[in-house]
Amino acid sequence: MNFLKFLPAGIFILLTTQSPGQDMFPITLTEDSQISMLTCSPGQELYSTFGHSAIRVKDPNLNLDWVFNYGTFDFATPNFYPKFIRGKLNYILSVSDFPSFLYEYMMEERWVTEQVLDINREEKQILFDSLRINYLPENREYLYDFFFDNCATRIRDIFYEGLEDVEFDYSETTSDLSFRDLLKPYIGPYPWVELGINLALGVKTDRIATGWETMFLPDHMLDVFRYARIERESLNSLLCYPENVLLEGKDLPDKKMKLHDPLIVFWGIFVLGTLITFIDLKRKKISRWFDRLIFGFSGFLGIFILFLWFGTDHGVLVNNYNLLWAIPFHFPAIFILIRKTSGSVSKKYFFITSVLMLLVVVMWRIIPQDLPTAILPFVLLLMMRALLLAKGSSLTT
Question: How far apart are the first and last CA of the chain?
Fold first, then answer.
């Protein structure tokens, strides 16, 4: 019904608005032109979790209404998924007409907020020319970096470099938060996604982000631009007019604890492991199949973290302290050391593992990296089972 309601107006605008592909050069903006920043609220799909930013250039006298979007990529790129995983995928600056851009967010029921820049015609022309130069085929691709070079930071840089005497005021915005802390409100409603991201991100994401750096998130950039100022004939005035809500959407549901949340699942595995350990001690027999499962999982996860560290170009995935408990050597250990007859090497290996797990648990809150709380019961389980395997000489198989 929403689609049918907006369809007639959408068709009219599309037929009367100049296409971005027509006469990209040269275009001289008029006094009635506007340049604004669009901020789109987070969506329910994983790719839209953190929201989006774009630049709108509007000139009614030229019948021009375009959106410059730094957040697009080409699925036809050779080896698309390997490049995406390894951090070698180029993103693309695309241009579309504003109605088409808005229609997508209308269908997804997401908020779209506009901040029109209070700048003169010459400054608008400089920004517009910069965007058009960026849109040239030889310039429109860039190597995406989620924290430091994304669809939001590109817009921040265009405005900052194209306008003189712009000052950002961070005193009214979020401060003293690490990159990891800044992500929490967005990934919190998706606990398994949150766990996966926190397992993959290394210690660099626990550094406190500067005010400038917080603008990698569209919502934070909107807040910073709300208080940004620009020099005007010895006057210090706001860079943007008060924002306009172009499209009202639905707020995402609040996070609610569910039975399949990671914290509950891993505590459940810990309880199961404790029960199995109690039974093993009672009957003096080790359930090695269970040890192969948990140590195999830990080892496989460690190998994957190592791949992210050394096999990709994502700088925030290096120096990952999760390797203190997700030990890659556990994967071959399930084939070599967890046998029916445990030798001295196996007992020493698992004794050292139990001591290391104990140290990780004791130092959980003082390790430089914020390790995911949901995984703590699994580390306790690894410690308990490693002690049992180290004691294997007094147990039968």
Answer: 66
pLDDT above 90: residue 17:
no
Are 131 and 49 spatial neighbours (Cβ–Cβ below 8 Å)?
no
Other C-beta atoms within 10 Å of 184: how many?
Answer: 14
The pLDDT of residue 81 is 62
- Name the pLDDT band for 380 (thresholds 50, 70, 90): very high
pLDDT, tens digit, 9 for 90 and up, residues 225-257: 999 999 877 667 899 999 999 999 887 766 665
Query: 3-state DSSP call for residue 372?
Result: coil
Residues 6+ apart with CB under 8 A from 95: 20, 21, 66, 67, 68, 69, 135
Are the C-beta atoms of 95 and 66 separated by less than 8 Å? yes
Q: How many CB atoms lie within 10 A of CB 352?
A: 12
Is residue 326 classed as helix, strand or coil in its secondary structure? coil
| Inter-CA distances, 353 with 138, 302, 360, 368, 384, Å | 53, 14, 10, 21, 10
Query: Tokens at residue 264, please?
Result: 């509950």
Tokens of 176: 């003293």
Neighbours of 93 (CB within 10 A): 20
DSSP for 7-63, please give it: HHHHHHHHHHSPPTTS--SS----TT-EEEEEEE---SSGGGTT-EEEEEEEEGGGT
Enter the pTM of the model.
Answer: 0.85
Q: What is the mean pLDDT of the chain?
A: 87
- Cα–Cα distance for residue pair 387/355, rounded to 1 Å: 9
Exposure string over 244-256, b if 16+ CB within 10 A, otherwise e: eebbebeebeeee
Q: Residue 221, CB half-sphere, CA atoms under 13 Å: how many?
A: 31
Beta-strand runs (E) in the chain: 34-40, 52-59, 64-72, 90-97, 112-116, 141-143, 166-167, 229-232, 235-238, 244-247
